[in-house]
Amino acid sequence: MTSTDEHARETALLLDIGQTLWAGGLPAGISVPHDLDWGYFLDQAYRHRMMGLCRLTLFGDGGENERLRHRGLYDLWYRVTARNNAAILRETGRILAALRAAGVDVVVRKGPALLELVYQDPGTRQMSDLDLLLRPGSERKFQSVLDDLGYLPGTVSRDRKEVIPNDRQVEIAWRLHTYNLPPMHRLTGDPVQPSIMVDPARAIFLPNSGFTLPAGHLLDSAVTIDSETAGALPVLAPHHMVIDLCGHLHKESTSLRYLRRGKHQRLTQYLDVLGYLRRVSLDWDELLACCARYRLARPVYFAFVNAQRLYPEAPIPAEVVAELGRQDGLTVEYADTYAQLDLQVPLRWDQDLRTRLFTSGIEPFPATRSLV
After folding, report:
1. CB-based contacts of 153, cutoff 8 Å, min separation 6
2. Worst-scoring range by mean pLDDT, 294-303, 305-314, 352-361?
3. 66 pLDDT above the threshold of 70
4. What is the CA radius of gyration of the chain?
């Protein structure tokens, strides 16, 4: 196990680089220690999906600095990410055009909206798929349109040459445990990006999460942004987008399924939230009203409290956090709990947030203690 105490300078540098996304642009200069452990820093930059942002910050001026290491790896990651993102955005435009022609109403979630609104550089945030929110009742028509575009439900084979249909057990599991349709794939023949995946959902929360926000309401409130590559993108209204981002972060930071896969060790999820808050004009009262109406304070409170722990100067009003806590009787200790959906009695981390974000080898379960 590698602790953050041993690598305080490396984690501090990574946090400083992340801060550039929401603090008003790149700083005049970021301090790079002479004896930085570049191997550890590279591992953490990759784990937290910050390779592109690190490349832009550390090497963006194109100059040479003998103190910096592994430039070629950061450049390669940046270029491949930019190339793949451009392909996904082009495909997004093609899919949306076909869905509009068929009268199928959807909203684009997360990746493309964040890339256009927050990151504004195709090489700085990786997209692995296209997340779409459907209006309930349009599932068959949606699948028909995607079929015509060459998409098939299932999983891509190891050799990336075929899409293997889901068996009946998998189909049943999707219906019982999620509001999503099974992911659909289209093979591209591209050795770098052999397939593109579309992840269609009928809700932004899992069925057993205890949270709900009607998809019809989300689609009726959607707004449109312009993408040079994808064209007009229907996206969630700002207060709904914040709830969606916080809900996704909360799910992957507290569910054992995701914890065991290391999904909670993604600083990028907090940067998505903070960067979005900086870039859009958010009506905080509207956000609070929506959380109160649909009882969604918990995931938003969790994300906001932990974002402030990482970045005390984060653009989140203290009174908003206090009101979210009041809505559901929450205290800051809630931001250290997990397994609420997996166990009858939730668990609490022994480690602080920074330690569990940047320390490899932490086991979330059962090496923990109960809240009781």
Report:
1. 143, 163, 165, 166, 181, 182, 183, 184, 185
2. 352-361
3. no
4. 21
**320-350 b/e with 16+ CB inside 10 Å = b?**
bbebbbebeebeeebbbbbbbeeeeebbbbe
Q: Which of 200, 195, 160 is nearest to 180 (CA)?
A: 200
pTM, to two decimals: 0.92
51 vs 266: CA distance, rounded Å: 12
CA dihedral over 200, 203, 205, 210, signed as positive or negative: negative
* pLDDT single digits (tens) 208-231: 888 999 999 999 999 999 999 999
CA distance 291 to 205: 14
In sequence order, what are the residues at sequence separation of 6 or more whose Cβ sits closer than 8 angstroms to the Cβ of residue 298? 211, 250, 328, 330, 334
DSSP 292-335: HHHT-HHHHHHHHHHHHHH-TT-S--HHHHHHHHHHHT--GGGG
Task: Write the DSSP symbol of residue 162.
Answer: -
| Contact residues for 292 (Cβ-Cβ < 8 A; gap 6+) | 327
Angstrom distance (rounded) from CA 59 to CA 69:
10
Burial of residue 371 (CB within 10 Å: 0-12, 13-18, 19+) is middle
d(CA 183, CA 201): 9
Tokens, residue 123: 């090489």
Q: CB neighbours (10 Å) of residue 154?
A: 17
DSSP 3-state of 180: strand
Euclidean distance between the first and the last CA atom of the chain, given in angstroms as a whole number: 27
Angle at alpha carbon of residue 41, lines to 35 and 46, rounded to 5°: 165
**Minimal CA–CA distance to 292: which of 322, 319, 323?**
323
Across the range 271-279, mean pLDDT stands at 96
pLDDT band at 4 (very low <50, low <70, confident <90, very high): low
C-alpha to C-alpha distance for 17 and 30, rounded to whole angstroms: 8
What are the DSSP E strand ranges found in the chain? Answer: 106-109, 130-134, 152-153, 155-156, 163-164, 184-187, 195-201, 223-227, 231-235, 337-338, 347-348, 369-370
